[in-house]
């Protein structure tokens, strides 16, 4: 599988990364180099092998249903580029 | 009195307890070294006042007889750990000016143990890199220089390794006696090897990830970096521990690793993975590895050959899994709630995201986000991601089988000594290959450490890596100690900065 | 199974509509799915938000056990497969109401697998008999925050209070064939959720909303391309969405167009749907297992505890009401539609049975009438919507089961006549007064005192000699007149049986 310029632009847009034409063009051979290299994984016989789910034997703990957090609006908004009336503000969204 | 900044963590702790010096004197000495070492660019933010405040408290506590495990010890904090009230950036423009309103679990534990903070250490941006050349705040320079005997250019600035390059450089240059690091695919061990210090990545889940800026969640693990094995044990005891706020945290008691230190390897088996002896292995690296084998034998260990057949697939698997997780972990940097916002004239919300992320992330971060996005995208998920996670299962299985035959594994930490800044930046793959020996233990979540093994013919440090079974940091530390005692590594970078 | 005959008439013939619903139901819990922030409705913006919900750097999710328990109970209530091994996945997309840049959901290994529910026959709605609707899965996921668009001319505002609240996404099979079936499905699902107690079913507050998948086809043909209309928040709107979408799709297809698989939005003001611009490139969600969380493994005992905690569910209750209590299917359906009233009814029957010493089956009809005619009639008449007291389970400020049971006893014992029963009910319905006390206080006891009745009859016969003569001459219809006069004279308190008997005697 190799990527072309269109694919690079599509993926960049999916990742919400604005790329210039030149950046996109430079990424094409770079990505192909990396992808060609990782594709050697295809050689490995993985018949009957489960994909890893937990690297160390451990099980998911569940919390009790108790309110222990929240009411920290100042902390939540402290680093906001734009906060107004207790909200985060963003450019108007049309749904 | 000898220079306080030449002391190890254990020596500072014990000397301070014994009344040989005050915590304030220690903090001032390190603050002075930090202030005088701007040329290394090891710190993004210096916090001398934090170190002094902790020292003041330590001096009071000593008077009151309420000493804590790290009272009197100032340390460096990798700028990937969120620190309340102190800018935390992950070395990215994206988070420039971000001041957390919370403290990471690991840093909080260290402060609770009495440690003080000298500053926030530079790193590869979002911990992505092996040379500390991807930081928005500039490269970190290694204090080491090549011996110019063979005309290689002794003045070429060298990479301190990465991503914890600020940590390694600062420790090697005596700017702090110890520091935190994080290791996703070698980011503690490789920089430790490059700068002639020690560092341990514990078992995945030992140290809480809460409050550490995420790179690849299933791999990220915090650990200490310091000048010797004992200091690593002391630091790790004060960083590790169960945290209910991290679902992957291990609910296990923290062993007393320092008290358990022993360099006696009698009855222990050390595995040498044959697949690591790759064709074209650097002669210096091979020589130091052989020396390591000899030292462990001398310490009483039996040497056995083991096989890790899927080793060669570890790096490609890592470069699917880590970017995939990163592409998702870094989606939160969107200019809405914190960090940089780029809002070009007339931009809508989605334009704002794309502009913000284009301006905020560095080239390597973008490259990995794009790879990660691609391998997870429709139609490719199974071929790349699922296949890589299956290979990861096989890699973990290789280790499990090897540990049926040995107690620890000995291998090189990195395939070469430190390279010059700029040497590998043009070729991402060449850079990635630096972690070829470090990545397998990361994929398997195993404890692994690097200790200095000797010098290359250019006079640069080389590290030896010890990998242990899950939960057995003690075995790793003990083998490290056995090597340390025999290697007699006393070389240090000559001060030029 | 009789298929629905609902058809959309087109120029090229009749079309059939195929409907699947993805219902998002907010799990009843104190705290959020992965954080300790509160879930209560209507708080100040961004006040019920933890650093985890705001996706601050380095924050991590820890799942809430109660949310898992409620989803498992819900799964058991629709007889679904409970997966002892499930996993959380990340669904990646960028939107201002989604702080992490991904929603933690379950795609590959949901908590609950295949199940089903039965919608009830409703002749009038074109559902000739009960119909089983398949449910593909229930998975647990995070809700998003809220975007406000009308506070500022050029900006939208983000409130993360809902961000991270636990939802169950209940995904049906495309088994519905008419708006009525879809409406019945949502109502039945809501009833089950409310019985189980896993969701309050409050569609106005957004605790339950449906993504409506609609396609059309010629009967017997393959499924057509579907559209998904998001977040429809009432039964009526679900039905309107389907009607509009089916018609629109038929028009598009018949004029030579094709249906694009897309996300649409319903406009309640116009009853129409339109394509959603903001989600147009959101098809590639790049799902993968959330590396911050381990697989979720349930023990048998956890699942058994969930099973034992389930109440009697609406279908079982209906069956019992018909088969054991002898109610009509209609009554049983009405009584079980709302869990609060069904519980009230069960308690009323139990109490009345104790109060009267009669079998449940003997007094159930009276209890059903009290609820369906009197109480519901009263609520309709006065336009009250009734909430239940959280502690007592009794309706707030309305007739309690104790009052109801006593009222029925008074009737059963012949102490209250039909008209008096009605009078007493209305008088005490909104008061705490016990019926017997009211009857006592107003001297309303029905009398069988033959002396008093005889005296009244004697006076009436004396005052109406002409009518007595006519009656005796064969105009027997006049008997009713004498009964009425006697009752009137007795102010309604006379036992009608006794009046009849005494009148017959007096008139010879
Ligand atoms: Mg949906
Ligand atoms: Zn959903």
Automatic annotation (TrEMBL), chain A:
Entry keywords, A to Z: ATP-binding, Ligase, Nucleotide-binding, Protein biosynthesis
Enzyme type, top EC level: ligase
Pfam families in UniProt: GatC
One example of a Gene Ontology biological process annotation: translation
Record bears the keyword Chloroplast: no
GO function term, MF aspect, one: ATP binding
EC number: 6.3.5.-
Domain of life: Bacteria
Gene3D superfamilies xref list: Glu-tRNAGln amidotransferase C subunit, N-terminal domain (1.10.20.60)
Catalysed reactions, semicolon-separated: L-glutamyl-tRNA(Gln) + L-glutamine + ATP + H2O = L-glutaminyl-tRNA(Gln) + L-glutamate + ADP + phosphate + H(+); L-aspartyl-tRNA(Asn) + L-glutamine + ATP + H2O = L-asparaginyl-tRNA(Asn) + L-glutamate + ADP + phosphate + 2 H(+)
Role, per record: Allows the formation of correctly charged Asn-tRNA(Asn) or Gln-tRNA(Gln) through the transamidation of misacylated Asp-tRNA(Asn) or Glu-tRNA(Gln) in organisms which lack either or both of asparaginyl-tRNA or glutaminyl-tRNA synthetases. The reaction takes place in the presence of glutamine and ATP through an activated phospho-Asp-tRNA(Asn) or phospho-Glu-tRNA(Gln).
Subunit structure: Heterotrimer of A, B and C subunits.
Similarity section: Belongs to the GatC family.
Record PANTHER family: GLUTAMYL-TRNA(GLN) AMIDOTRANSFERASE SUBUNIT C, MITOCHONDRIAL (PTHR15004)
Name the UniProt record assigns to this protein: Aspartyl/glutamyl-tRNA(Asn/Gln) amidotransferase subunit C
From TrEMBL, chain B:
One Gene Ontology cellular component annotation held by this UniProt entry: glutamyl-tRNA(Gln) amidotransferase complex
Positions annotated as active site in the UniProt record: 78, 163, 187
EC numbers on record: 6.3.5.7
GO molecular function: ATP binding; glutaminyl-tRNA synthase (glutamine-hydrolyzing) activity
Keyword Cytoplasm: no
Broad class of enzyme this protein falls into: ligase
Any one of the GO BP annotations: translation
Pfam families: Amidase (PF01425)
Keyword Nucleotide-binding appears in the UniProt entry: yes
Domain (Amidase): residue spans on this chain: 26-477
Role, per record: Allows the formation of correctly charged Gln-tRNA(Gln) through the transamidation of misacylated Glu-tRNA(Gln) in organisms which lack glutaminyl-tRNA synthetase. The reaction takes place in the presence of glutamine and ATP through an activated gamma-phospho-Glu-tRNA(Gln).
HAMAP family to which the protein is assigned, alphabetical: GatA
Homology family: Belongs to the amidase family. GatA subfamily.
PANTHER family: GLUTAMYL-TRNA(GLN) AMIDOTRANSFERASE SUBUNIT A, TRANSAMIDASE
Protein name: Glutamyl-tRNA(Gln) amidotransferase subunit A
Organism of this sequence: Sphingobium nicotianae
UniProtKB/TrEMBL annotation, chain C:
GO biological process, one term: glutaminyl-tRNAGln biosynthesis via transamidation
Keywords linked to the UniProt accession: ATP-binding, Ligase, Nucleotide-binding, Protein biosynthesis
Keyword Membrane on entry: no
Reactions listed under catalytic activity: L-aspartyl-tRNA(Asn) + L-glutamine + ATP + H2O = L-asparaginyl-tRNA(Asn) + L-glutamate + ADP + phosphate + 2 H(+); L-glutamyl-tRNA(Gln) + L-glutamine + ATP + H2O = L-glutaminyl-tRNA(Gln) + L-glutamate + ADP + phosphate + H(+)
GO molecular function: ATP binding; glutaminyl-tRNA synthase (glutamine-hydrolyzing) activity
UniProt-listed Enzyme Commission number(s): 6.3.5.-
Enzyme class, UniProt record, top EC level: ligase
Keyword Cytoplasm among record annotations: no
Residue ranges of every copy of the Asn/Gln amidotransferase domain listed in the record: 347-507
Family recorded in the similarity comment: Belongs to the GatB/GatE family. GatB subfamily.
Function per UniProt: Allows the formation of correctly charged Asn-tRNA(Asn) or Gln-tRNA(Gln) through the transamidation of misacylated Asp-tRNA(Asn) or Glu-tRNA(Gln) in organisms which lack either or both of asparaginyl-tRNA or glutaminyl-tRNA synthetases. The reaction takes place in the presence of glutamine and ATP through an activated phospho-Asp-tRNA(Asn) or phospho-Glu-tRNA(Gln).
HAMAP family according to UniProt: GatB
NCBIfam families according to UniProt: gatB, PRK05477.1-2, PRK05477.1-4, PRK05477.1-5
Quaternary structure (record): Heterotrimer of A, B and C subunits.
This protein's name: Aspartyl/glutamyl-tRNA(Asn/Gln) amidotransferase subunit B
Species in which this protein is naturally found: Sphingobium nicotianae
Gene encoding the protein: gatB
């Amino acid at each position: 599988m190799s990527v072309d310029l269109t694919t690079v632009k599509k993926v960049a847009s999916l990742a919400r990364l604005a790329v210039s034409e030149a950046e996109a063009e430079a990424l094409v051979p770079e990505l192909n180099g990396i992808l060609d290299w990782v594709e050697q994984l295809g050689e490995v016989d993985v018949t009957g092998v489960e994909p890893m789910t937990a690297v160390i034997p451990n099980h998911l703990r569940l919390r009790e249903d108790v309110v222990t957090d929240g009411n920290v609006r100042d902390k939540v908004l402290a680093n906001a580029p734009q906060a107004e009336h207790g909200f985060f503000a963003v450019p108007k969204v049309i749904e | 009195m000898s220079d306080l900044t030449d002391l190890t963590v254990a020596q500072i702790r014990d000397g301070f307890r014994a009344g040989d010096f005050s915590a304030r004197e220690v903090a001032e000495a390190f603050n002075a070294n930090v202030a005088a070492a701007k040329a290394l660019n090891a710190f993004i933010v210096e916090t001398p006042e934090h170190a002094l405040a902790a020292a003041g408290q330590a001096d009071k506590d000593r008077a009151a007889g309420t000493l804590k495990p790290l009272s009197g010890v100032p340390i460096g904090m990798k700028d990937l750990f969120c620190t309340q009230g102190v800018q935390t950036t992950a070395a990215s423009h994206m988070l420039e000016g971000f001041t957390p309103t919370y403290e990471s679990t690991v840093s909080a534990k260290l402060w609770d143990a009495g440690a003080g903070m000298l500053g926030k250490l530079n790193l590869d941006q979002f911990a992505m890199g092996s040379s500390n050349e991807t930081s928005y705040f500039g490269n970190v320079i290694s204090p080491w220089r090549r011996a110019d005997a063979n005309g290689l250019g002794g003045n070429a600035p060298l990479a301190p390794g990465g991503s914890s390059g600020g940590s390694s450089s600062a420790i090697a240059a005596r700017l702090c006696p110890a520091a935190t690091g994080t290791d996703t695919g070698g980011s503690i061990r490789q920089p430790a090897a490059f700068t002639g210090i020690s560092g341990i990545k514990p078992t995945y889940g030992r140290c809480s990830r809460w409050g550490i800026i995420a790179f690849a969640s299933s791999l990220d693990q915090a650990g200490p970096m310091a000048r010797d094995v004992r200091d690593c044990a002391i630091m790790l005891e004060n960083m590790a521990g169960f945290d209910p706020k991290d679902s992957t945290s291990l609910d296990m008691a923290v062993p007393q690793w320092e008290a358990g230190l022993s360099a006696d390897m009698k009855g222990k088996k050390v595995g040498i993975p044959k697949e690591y002896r790759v064709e074209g292995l650097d002669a210096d690296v091979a020589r130091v590895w052989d020396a390591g084998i000899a030292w462990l034998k001398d310490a009483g260990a039996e040497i056995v050959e083991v096989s890790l057949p899927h080793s060669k697939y570890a790096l490609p698997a890592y470069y699917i899994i880590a970017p995939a997780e990163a592409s998702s972990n870094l989606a939160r940097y969107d200019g809405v709630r914190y960090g940089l916002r780029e809002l070009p004239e007339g931009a809508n919300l989605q334009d704002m995201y794309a502009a913000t992320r284009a301006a905020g992330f560095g080239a390597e971060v973008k490259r990995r986000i794009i790879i990660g996005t691609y391998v997870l995208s429709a139609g490719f998920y199974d071929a790349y991601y699922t296949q890589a996670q299956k290979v990861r299962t096989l890699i973990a299985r290789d280790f499990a089988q090897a540990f049926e035959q040995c107690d620890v594994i000995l291998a090189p930490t990195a395939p070469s000594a430190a390279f010059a800044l700029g040497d590998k930046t043009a070729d991402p793959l060449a850079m990635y290959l630096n972690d070829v020996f470090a990545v397998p233990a990361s994929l398997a979540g195993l404890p692994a450490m690097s200790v200095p093994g000797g010098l290359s013919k250019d006079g640069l440090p080389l590290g030896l890596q010890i990998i242990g079974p899950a939960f057995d940091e003690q075995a790793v530390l003990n083998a490290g100690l056995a090597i340390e005692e025999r290697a007699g590594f006393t070389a240090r970078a000559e001060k030029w900065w | 199974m009789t298929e629905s005959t609902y058809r959309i008439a087109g120029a090229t013939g009749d079309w059939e509509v195929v409907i699947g619903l993805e219902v998002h139901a907010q799990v009843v819990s104190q705290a959020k799915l992965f954080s300790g922030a509160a879930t209560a409705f209507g708080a100040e913006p961004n006040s019920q938000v933890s650093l985890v919900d705001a996706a601050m750097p380095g924050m991590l999710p820890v799942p809430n056990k109660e949310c898992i328990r409620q989803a498992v109970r819900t799964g058991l209530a629709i007889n679904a497969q409970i997966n002892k091994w499930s996993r959380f996945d990340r669904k990646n997309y960028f939107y201002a109401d989604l702080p992490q840049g991904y929603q933690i959901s379950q795609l590959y290994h949901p908590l609950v697998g295949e199940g089903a529910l039965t919608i009830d026959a409703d002749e009038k709605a074109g559902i000739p008999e009960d119909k089983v609707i398949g449910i593909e899965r229930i998975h647990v996921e995070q809700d998003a925050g809220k975007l406000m668009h009308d506070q500022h001319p050029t900006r939208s505002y983000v409130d993360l209070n809902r961000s991270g609240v636990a939802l169950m996404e209940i995904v049906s099979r495309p088994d519905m064939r008419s708006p009525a079936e879809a409406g019945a499905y949502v109502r039945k699902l809501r009833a089950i959720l409310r019985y189980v107690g896993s969701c309050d079913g409050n569609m106005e507050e957004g605790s339950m909303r449906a993504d409506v998948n609609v396609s059309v086809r010629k009967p017997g043909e393959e499924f057509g391309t579907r559209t998904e209309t998001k977040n429809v928040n009432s039964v009526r709107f679900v039905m309107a969405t389907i009607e509009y979408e089916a018609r629109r799709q038929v028009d598009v297809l018949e004029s030579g167009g094709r249906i694009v698989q897309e996300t649409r939005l319903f406009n309640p003001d116009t009853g129409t749907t339109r394509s959603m611009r903001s989600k147009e490139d959101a098809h590639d969600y790049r799902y993968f297992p959330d590396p911050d969380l381990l697989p979720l493994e349930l023990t048998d005992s956890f699942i058994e505890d969930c099973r034992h905690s389930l109440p009697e569910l609406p279908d079982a209750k209906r069956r019992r009401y018909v088969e054991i209590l002898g109610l009509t299917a209609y009554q049983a359906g009405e009584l079980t539609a709302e869990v609060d009233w069904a519980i009230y009814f069960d308690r009323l029957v139990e109490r009345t049975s104790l109060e009267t010493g009669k079998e449940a089956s003997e007094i159930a009809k009276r209890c059903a009438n009290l609820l369906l005619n009197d109480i519901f009639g009263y609520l309709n008449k006065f336009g009250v919507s009734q909430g239940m007291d959280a502690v007592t389970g009794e309706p707030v400020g309305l007739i309690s089961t104790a009052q109801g049971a006593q009222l029925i006893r008074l009737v059963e014992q012949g102490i209250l006549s039909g008209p008096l029963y009605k009078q007493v009910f209305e008088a005490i319905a909104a008061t705490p007064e016990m019926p017997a006390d009211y009857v006592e206080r107003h001297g309303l006891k029905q009398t069988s005192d033959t002396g008093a009745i005889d005296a009244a009859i004697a006076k009436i016969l004396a005052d109406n000699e002409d009518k007595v003569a006519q009656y005796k001459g064969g105009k027997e219809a006049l008997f009713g007149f004498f009964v009425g006069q006697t009752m009137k004279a007795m102010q309604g308190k006379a036992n009608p049986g006794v009046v009849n008997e005494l009148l017959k005697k007096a008139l010879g």
